[in-house]
Amino acid sequence: MKKILTVIQLAIIAGIVAYGTVCLYVGDFTGTYATLPFLIFYYVWFVAKRNRMRREESDKSGLSGQ
To answer: 36 is in which domain, residue-wise?
Structure first.
């Protein structure tokens, strides 16, 4: 199940980046910059959250080992 969600996330992000790239080549700068909030949302929601959880787990394991 996790692998399917990862593939779906990659497809969505690739679609957003491709759309922004096409808009950039066409000259639609508004369309290009409109994709930026989606990419920032993705980063904050998935990547930063995962990094925070890993840091908390390593802190807990470090405390229990002492």
So the answer is: 2-64
